[in-house]
Each structure stands twice: as C-alpha cells, then as structure tokens.
Amino acid sequence: MSKFWSDYPIIEKEIDAVSSIIAKNAKCKDKVIESSILDLLNSGGKMLRPAFTIIASKFGNYNEERSRALASVMEMFHMATLVHDDIIDEAEFRRGKETVQSKYGKNYAVYIGDFLFCLCFRVLATTSSIERGIDVDTQVMSRICLGEIEQLNSRFDKNVSVKDYLKRTSGKTAELFSLSLYIGAAESSCDKKICRLFWNIGHNIGMAFQIIDDILDYTATDEELGKKSGNDLKEGIYTLPLILAMKKNPSVFENILNKDNYSNEEIDMIINIVKNNNGIDDAMKIANKYSQKAFRDINKLPDNEYRDILLGVVTKLLERSY
Amino acid sequence: MSKFWSDYPIIEKEIDAVSSIIAKNAKCKDKVIESSILDLLNSGGKMLRPAFTIIASKFGNYNEERSRALASVMEMFHMATLVHDDIIDEAEFRRGKETVQSKYGKNYAVYIGDFLFCLCFRVLATTSSIERGIDVDTQVMSRICLGEIEQLNSRFDKNVSVKDYLKRTSGKTAELFSLSLYIGAAESSCDKKICRLFWNIGHNIGMAFQIIDDILDYTATDEELGKKSGNDLKEGIYTLPLILAMKKNPSVFENILNKDNYSNEEIDMIINIVKNNNGIDDAMKIANKYSQKAFRDINKLPDNEYRDILLGVVTKLLERSY
C-alpha cells in the first residue's frame, strides 16, 4: 500500500478495510481475473477517492458498512478507467508495475475494465440508501466517460484552448473527486449545504490535482512517476503547460506541433520550449487558484478532526513533486 | 430497422419507441459520439432483448414508460458488449456495416462501450422500481462480463468440453435473455412464479439462439451473416459443432488444432471435417432440446395475445438460417 496515509492511522485503517471489500468482490473462480484486479489494487495507488468518501461520511451519521462499500465503489470505478486508459496509452507501466494490458493483452484489459464497471455498479446498487437514489452517481460516471472521449478527440489538436482543457479536466478527473466526497456526505445524511460544499471542494481539489499531474509529466523523472515522463505529449495530449506556452508564444510552436507522432528528441525539445515560455509556472499559478478555493471551502466545514485531516492531506497532495 | 418484427406491428411500435429512448440518451454535444451510437442502433439488429422485456411486461401491470426505459437498458447493455467484442475480434463489419472500432479506431470503441455501460446503468438507476432494486440486474451484468473473459481465456484450447461451452454460453448470451424477460415481468409486478418462469424461458431461448448462431458461423455465407463466416474459428473460439465433432473423432483433429492461427484454407478444411463428423447435426439436436424446453415453459404462461407472439417469434428465431 502507498505510504501516503501513514500520518493518519485512522484513515489508513479504513483504507485497509476498503481494500478488503474490493478484494472480496474480485474473488472469482478464474484466478487470472482475480489476480489482475488484486495486482492493480496493491500497486500502491494513493486510494484518494475512497479516503475522501470516508472522510466526508464522518461529517454526518457515519455508517461504517455503507461508507466503506461506497468508498470501494469510487476506487473500483477509478480502477476500471485506469485499465481502459492504459489500453489507449498502450502503457506498459503504471506506478512502476506492469499494466493489465501489457501483462495479459489488450483484449483481456477491455473485459477486466468492463467487469470492474459492473462490480462497481453492483456494489453501488446494493448499498446506496433507497432515499438518495444513484442517479447523480451514474450521471457523473457518464460525464467521466465523455471527458475521456473528449480528450481522445482533441489529440494532436494544437487549437485546444485553456477552456477546452479545463472542461475536459473537470470531466475526466474532478467529477470523480466531487462524487467521492459528495457520496460520503449525502449517504451519511449531511444537510444539503454541506453536501454541496463537499461537491465544490472535490471539484477544486480534482482540478488542482490534475493540473499538477500534468505539470509532473513535464518536470518529473521516469523513476519519480513510475512511468515514462513526457508520455502525454507523446500521445498527443496537450495539457495546460503546453497550452499556456503556446498562447504566450504561438510562433515558436508553429512548425513543431504539426504532426501526430514525435521522436524522443522532439519531445525533449518541446518540453524545453514549454519551460522557457513559462508554461510550468503559469500552469502552477492556475493550480494554486484551485487549491486556494478548495482550502477556503474546507475551512467552511464544521470544525472537527476530519476537517483537519482533509486540510492536511490536501496540502500534502497539492505540494507533491512526484 | 430489422424486418424481424414486421408481422407483429404491436411490438414494432414499441421497439420504435425504445429506439427513440436510446437515441435521446445518446444525444451529445460531441456529434461523433452521438452518430456512432445511432449507427449501431440503426444497423438492423433484431432488438430481441428489448422486445422480450416489453412482451414480458405485458403479463403484469404494464407501465409504458418504465417498460420501455428498461427495454432500452437491455439493448444499450447489449450494444456496449458488441462494441467491445468487436475490438477483441478486430471485426471490420457487423450486420454488414462497418464497426465502431473499424470506423473510429479501437481506442474510441473502448470509451464508446464504457459510455454505453454508464448510460445503461443511469437509465436503470432512474427507472427501476424502488421495491425491486437492481441488484439482480447488476449481478447478471457481472456474469456476462465473466462469460466474455472465460471465452477469451479458452481461445485455441482444444480441451474445451461441452460443459465448458454451455457454461460460457449461459454467461455470455443466455443471462441477458433471461434478464430481459425477467425484468419486464418483475417490474410489472408479475408474481414470483411467473418471473421465474420467464427467467427459465430466457435461458433456454438464449442457449438455443447462441448454439444456432455458432452453427451459422459454419454453414452460412458471408452475405447471410453480414460478417465473415468461420470467424469464430479464426479467433480460436471453439464452439459446439467443433467440440462435438472433436469428441466423436478426436484423432482427426489431433494434428490440426495445435496452433493459434489458421489460414483461410485451414479454416475451410476444419469446417469440412466438422461437417463430416456430424458436428452441425449434433449441435442442432442440442439446440432443439433447449428450444423444446423454452416452448414447454412458454405454454405454461397465462394464455394471452403476448404468449402467442412469444411462441411465434421464438419459432421464427430458432428456425432461422441467417
């Protein structure tokens, strides 16, 4: 497991319990299916989404069994999208470990992702409280898929705007952060104002988190990332640092970004141009704006131990350099 | 639309309404997403699963809006699995039309399938009656994915038994037929005995239907199928005709089925050996057993117009040669 939560044993314990639920759901006669899901589960992800569900659920009438089950849904949905993303990226490694598609083949990864989607809806259907319904959850999940498709459609498109980027990021990342916090609060019967506040906190954490992730693709080493750096660029995914640098100095990119395939030397060159045109710093400024909004809203939450935990982990998360 | 239902205008009208629901759900700012779903919807599928949901719902307190919505869920789930199956098969054509993966690429097909899964759960979550819950539905959906994975894992495995084949077929095809009928009956408050009867009818229709489908891969022309015949064999999917022929005459297959790639000539040769060893006739006998069971149970249903329709279409379906 990731050491991310080691300063918060109370959350670490919950995450262990959530992992056990996922492992139990992955139990399967077919040992390859089971072990590929367990591999993914134990690959050292930070388990942010389930932790957020647990934390938010502590602000209301905490129901251990239900909160943990819903937390597992958030992680299984995330895992399903990761498995399918790795097919698209033809990624060999994630978090330093071989991906499902690399180990068992693309075809297998398609179905393992589908199986995870079904598992996630199954647990959601059996644990959500009847009053609340799961229409919000399933709407969010649709929007996440749309975000992925938008990203795919805008590959190698040098006309992508900051607005396009923010919209896509909102869909593919921030929505699930919002849902993870919201579902925890709503299912423990927090009042509507608190639920909405959690939704917004999730959005702003998610936006800042994804922008920082995209910056790290430009600045971190392969070892720090657990996968190849410059990978987004290679895949034609133009993220905020590049978009901002292009906006500042369009002419320098004119003759570079007109293909749909870059050599490693070209990638290094583009990364340097982005850095020289303040792409990293300007992107960081936007990430900070989202972070500040998140912190402002977290401070509006009722003052308790879990608010402090949330403040602590969000600080840690948004200041990470790996 | 397929002409399959033209003798039953009462069902044809319902299917039109179900198609409109799917089209409405597919509405999307991104026109490529929308049109790829509409292409699939209008590609001339028989819309069996939604028709079954409608028919079964007529045996209870028929609620037009709810039955049609649930019928659309059955078809959207089916569409999602088709899009993903075509990735695995690298299929260029389905029902004589270009597949999503062939037209827009594999990556796109992964996400379009995911989007359809999410749509399907979304409609399910918002229309299922609260009392019934959707745990049965989501369990079935998981089992369907497992059936697909099992099929994938048993590719080019010449030790696959009749039992393995029937189990896999039950998962990947019959379960959704069962669910389509069951959900219609259960959501219109039929009594439990009738719901169970529909479940069994769906199982037996589904088994017979899939066996016949697998036989057609050996006997029909490309034009009749709307895709390449012999495709299962080429993909290493050993179906009932081959399994039965192997059982009857193992030695003749010994030196043929020991690779994981066949030329067109080898495919033709295997098809002939299967035919010469009664693989087709013996498989047809098993299909007929399932058909008989289905007819026996349909006759146990309350005598009404919809029972007659069900008898009529199942006869037509199980006697088809295309």
UniProtKB/TrEMBL annotation, chains A, B:
GO annotation, biological process: isoprenoid biosynthetic process
Cited SUPFAM superfamilies: Terpenoid synthases
Cofactor: Mg(2+)
UniProtKB keywords: Magnesium, Metal-binding, Transferase
Keyword Electron transport: no
Signal peptide location: none
Membership in a protein family: Belongs to the FPP/GGPP synthase family.
A molecular function (GO) term: metal ion binding
Protein name listed in UniProt: Polyprenyl synthetase family protein
